[in-house]
Design goal:
With about 130 residues, this protein is an alpha+beta fold. Helices cover about 40% and strands about 45% of the residues. The longest helix is centred in the first third of the chain and has 26 residues, at about 1-25. This is DUF4783 domain-containing protein.
Length: about 130
Protein backbone atom coordinates (compact mmCIF):
# COMPACT_ATOMS: atom_id res chain seq x y z
CA UNK A 1 0.00 0.00 0.00
CA UNK A 2 2.77 2.43 0.93
CA UNK A 3 4.58 1.56 -2.29
CA UNK A 4 1.49 2.35 -4.40
CA UNK A 5 1.00 5.64 -2.58
CA UNK A 6 4.66 6.54 -3.19
CA UNK A 7 4.41 5.65 -6.90
CA UNK A 8 1.25 7.75 -7.24
CA UNK A 9 3.00 10.68 -5.57
CA UNK A 10 6.00 10.38 -7.90
CA UNK A 11 3.72 10.19 -10.95
CA UNK A 12 1.72 13.27 -9.94
CA UNK A 13 4.92 15.20 -9.11
CA UNK A 14 6.42 14.31 -12.51
CA UNK A 15 3.28 15.44 -14.31
CA UNK A 16 3.26 18.76 -12.47
CA UNK A 17 6.90 19.40 -13.37
CA UNK A 18 6.32 18.58 -17.04
CA UNK A 19 3.29 20.88 -17.20
CA UNK A 20 5.44 23.70 -15.76
CA UNK A 21 8.14 23.12 -18.38
CA UNK A 22 5.54 23.09 -21.16
CA UNK A 23 4.05 26.35 -19.88
CA UNK A 24 7.48 28.01 -19.90
CA UNK A 25 8.12 26.69 -23.40
CA UNK A 26 4.84 28.13 -24.62
CA UNK A 27 5.68 31.51 -23.10
CA UNK A 28 8.83 31.59 -25.24
CA UNK A 29 7.10 30.35 -28.44
CA UNK A 30 6.51 33.81 -30.00
CA UNK A 31 10.11 34.76 -29.23
CA UNK A 32 11.34 31.52 -30.83
CA UNK A 33 9.24 32.21 -33.93
CA UNK A 34 10.55 35.78 -34.26
CA UNK A 35 14.15 34.54 -34.03
CA UNK A 36 13.55 31.72 -36.51
CA UNK A 37 12.07 34.24 -38.93
CA UNK A 38 14.94 36.67 -38.22
CA UNK A 39 12.35 39.36 -37.51
CA UNK A 40 13.83 42.02 -35.27
CA UNK A 41 10.53 43.89 -35.44
CA UNK A 42 8.53 40.94 -34.03
CA UNK A 43 11.22 40.25 -31.45
CA UNK A 44 11.17 43.90 -30.32
CA UNK A 45 7.51 43.52 -29.32
CA UNK A 46 8.79 41.47 -26.37
CA UNK A 47 11.61 43.81 -25.33
CA UNK A 48 11.66 45.54 -21.97
CA UNK A 49 12.26 49.32 -22.16
CA UNK A 50 15.98 48.60 -21.61
CA UNK A 51 17.58 45.46 -23.05
CA UNK A 52 21.07 44.12 -22.40
CA UNK A 53 22.56 42.53 -25.54
CA UNK A 54 25.79 40.56 -25.44
CA UNK A 55 27.75 39.17 -28.38
CA UNK A 56 30.68 36.99 -27.29
CA UNK A 57 31.07 38.82 -23.99
CA UNK A 58 30.68 42.35 -25.38
CA UNK A 59 27.70 43.55 -23.29
CA UNK A 60 25.81 46.77 -23.82
CA UNK A 61 22.48 48.13 -22.68
CA UNK A 62 20.13 49.56 -25.28
CA UNK A 63 16.71 51.10 -25.41
CA UNK A 64 14.13 48.79 -26.97
CA UNK A 65 14.31 50.75 -30.24
CA UNK A 66 18.11 50.62 -30.37
CA UNK A 67 18.08 46.90 -29.50
CA UNK A 68 15.72 46.27 -32.43
CA UNK A 69 18.24 47.83 -34.84
CA UNK A 70 21.15 45.89 -33.29
CA UNK A 71 19.23 42.63 -33.69
CA UNK A 72 18.28 43.58 -37.26
CA UNK A 73 21.97 44.02 -38.05
CA UNK A 74 22.84 40.72 -36.32
CA UNK A 75 20.16 38.82 -38.29
CA UNK A 76 21.36 40.40 -41.55
CA UNK A 77 24.92 39.19 -40.89
CA UNK A 78 23.92 35.84 -39.31
CA UNK A 79 20.72 34.64 -40.95
CA UNK A 80 19.47 31.67 -38.94
CA UNK A 81 19.69 28.28 -40.62
CA UNK A 82 18.02 26.80 -37.53
CA UNK A 83 17.07 27.86 -34.04
CA UNK A 84 15.39 26.25 -31.07
CA UNK A 85 15.32 26.61 -27.32
CA UNK A 86 16.82 23.56 -25.65
CA UNK A 87 16.26 24.43 -21.99
CA UNK A 88 13.78 26.48 -19.99
CA UNK A 89 14.15 27.49 -16.38
CA UNK A 90 13.59 30.08 -13.73
CA UNK A 91 15.71 31.80 -11.12
CA UNK A 92 15.04 31.50 -7.40
CA UNK A 93 13.08 34.75 -7.69
CA UNK A 94 10.92 33.25 -10.46
CA UNK A 95 12.50 35.06 -13.41
CA UNK A 96 12.09 32.86 -16.50
CA UNK A 97 14.94 32.20 -18.89
CA UNK A 98 15.67 29.99 -21.88
CA UNK A 99 18.81 28.63 -23.51
CA UNK A 100 18.86 27.97 -27.23
CA UNK A 101 21.03 26.86 -30.11
CA UNK A 102 21.26 29.37 -32.95
CA UNK A 103 22.87 28.08 -36.13
CA UNK A 104 23.66 30.86 -38.57
CA UNK A 105 25.01 30.38 -42.07
CA UNK A 106 28.56 31.18 -40.91
CA UNK A 107 28.59 30.46 -37.16
CA UNK A 108 26.78 28.60 -34.39
CA UNK A 109 25.83 30.31 -31.15
CA UNK A 110 24.51 29.41 -27.76
CA UNK A 111 21.78 31.90 -26.96
CA UNK A 112 20.53 32.89 -23.51
CA UNK A 113 17.29 34.87 -23.12
CA UNK A 114 16.29 36.18 -19.70
CA UNK A 115 12.99 37.84 -19.02
CA UNK A 116 12.19 40.53 -16.48
CA UNK A 117 8.93 41.80 -15.04
CA UNK A 118 7.75 45.09 -16.49
CA UNK A 119 4.39 46.35 -15.32
CA UNK A 120 3.29 42.85 -14.38
CA UNK A 121 4.25 41.35 -17.76
CA UNK A 122 7.35 39.35 -18.63
CA UNK A 123 9.57 41.09 -21.20
CA UNK A 124 13.02 40.31 -22.60
CA UNK A 125 15.67 41.92 -20.42
CA UNK A 126 18.78 40.10 -21.66
CA UNK A 127 19.90 38.33 -24.82
CA UNK A 128 23.35 36.78 -24.83
CA UNK A 129 24.99 35.17 -27.89
CA UNK A 130 28.14 33.09 -27.38
CA UNK A 131 29.94 31.44 -30.29
CA UNK A 132 30.25 27.70 -29.98
Amino acid sequence: MKRNLFLAFVLVWGLLLSVGALAQGEAFAPIRNAIRGSSSQELAEYFAPTVELSFDGDKQSYSATQAEFVMKDFFAKNTPASFDFIHYGGSNEGTPYAVGKYAGKNSAYRMFVKMKSVGGAQKIGTIDFSKE
